[in-house]
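Project outcomes to date are best conveyed with an example. Our students and postdoctoral researchers have been running inverse folding experiments weekly, and each run begins with a structure described purely in tokens. The record below, which covers 322 residues, was selected by the lab manager from last quarter's runs and is presented without edits.
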């Protein structure tokens, strides 16, 4: 039996009732959700930004720039159609009084009295995939090691892994590499901003030696990190055995204007955040987001670490028998 990692997901709470927000906060705390809120004047900029989200909690009494909740939900669906929206209602927890088209805007309606009815919906939407503990822990380990090998004089800080449902791209630079095995098929992405990475190259924090940094140099840096992580992932988790059955593919759609990427799947994505800080105190930190989308195949019950890797850990002294 695969032991699932306890991951969290950020949700945007759009509700002006203080009593309701307290109850929603308690519900979030009990269900691995991190509730975030924003001022009404800022909500559209937040939705158009690179804030990673798993869902939205919207009150039917919420008003944004003169719009009622229903009109605002239509806007949300246009901007972030991949995000499930849970509608808090005052009198009843159903949607049949809305038009069929408007009903499709919401994943579930609820009242404060029956908010626990959202729990199974969270499993169907945000937490629909089981991620083994060994995989989640190992990804952080191998990625941190890869970053430390490619950057000099930096500290690599990692945050707790989490689940996202959105399809936004962070920054101007991202890499994409396929992952294929008998237990998973999909992609890994690394995403970052160009300017801080240029600063790291200019301050001799990488292995690039140049008098004039250009975009090809920073492409090379992120490409090398991607290759290192991919190689370690393959060696640790992907056995050298033929793949089963016919292998399907789906189109990948990228909209640069809206910083949007779609893998043709409604599945959530496993997300990691790394922050590289210059130990010499020069320049801003570099933030790198890492995402995994297993859109083509996912069978965590077949997941296992390769025995050779475990043996190496014993040989090195990192592991010992209890």
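After processing, the design step wrote out the following sequence:
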């Amino acid at each position: 039996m695969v032991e699932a990692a306890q991951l969290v997901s950020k949700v945007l709470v759009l509700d002006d009732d203080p009593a309701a927000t307290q109850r929603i906060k308690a519900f979030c705390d009990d269900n691995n959700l991190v509730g975030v809120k924003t001022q009404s004047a800022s909500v559209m900029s937040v939705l158009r930004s690179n804030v990673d989200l798993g869902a939205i909690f919207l009150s039917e009494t919420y008003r944004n720039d003169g719009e009622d909740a229903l009109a605002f939900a239509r806007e949300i669906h246009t901007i972030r159609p991949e995000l499930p929206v849970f509608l808090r209602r005052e009198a009843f927890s159903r949607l049949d009084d809305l038009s069929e088209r408007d009903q499709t805007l919401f994943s579930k309606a609820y009242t404060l009295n029956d908010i626990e009815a959202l729990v199974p919906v969270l499993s169907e939407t945000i937490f629909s995939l089981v991620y083994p503990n060994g995989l989640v822990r190992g990804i952080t380990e191998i990625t941190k090691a890869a970053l430390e090998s490619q950057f000099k004089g930096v500290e690599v800080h990692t945050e707790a892994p989490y689940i996202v449902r959105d399809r936004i791209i962070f920054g101007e630079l991202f890499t994409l590499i396929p992952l294929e095995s008998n237990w998973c098929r999909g992609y890994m992405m690394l995403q970052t901003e160009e300017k801080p990475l240029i600063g790291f190259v200019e301050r001799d924090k990488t292995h690039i030696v140049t008098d004039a940094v250009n975009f090809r140099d920073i492409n090379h840096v992120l490409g090398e990190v991607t290759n290192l992580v991919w190689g370690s992932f393959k060696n640790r988790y992907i056995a050298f055995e033929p793949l089963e059955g016919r292998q399907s593919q789906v189109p990948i759609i990228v909209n640069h204007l809206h910083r949007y990427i779609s893998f043709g799947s409604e599945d959530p994505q496993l997300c990691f955040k790394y922050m590289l800080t210059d130990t010499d105190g020069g320049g801003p930190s570099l933030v790198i987001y890492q995402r995994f989308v297993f859109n083509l195949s996912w069978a965590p019950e077949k997941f296992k670490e390769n025995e050779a890797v475990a043996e190496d850990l014993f040989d090195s002294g990192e592991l010992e028998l209890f």
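The two ends are 22 Å apart (CA to CA). The domain at 133-316 is CATH 3.40.1550.10 (Chemotaxis protein chec). The training component of this project remains on track.
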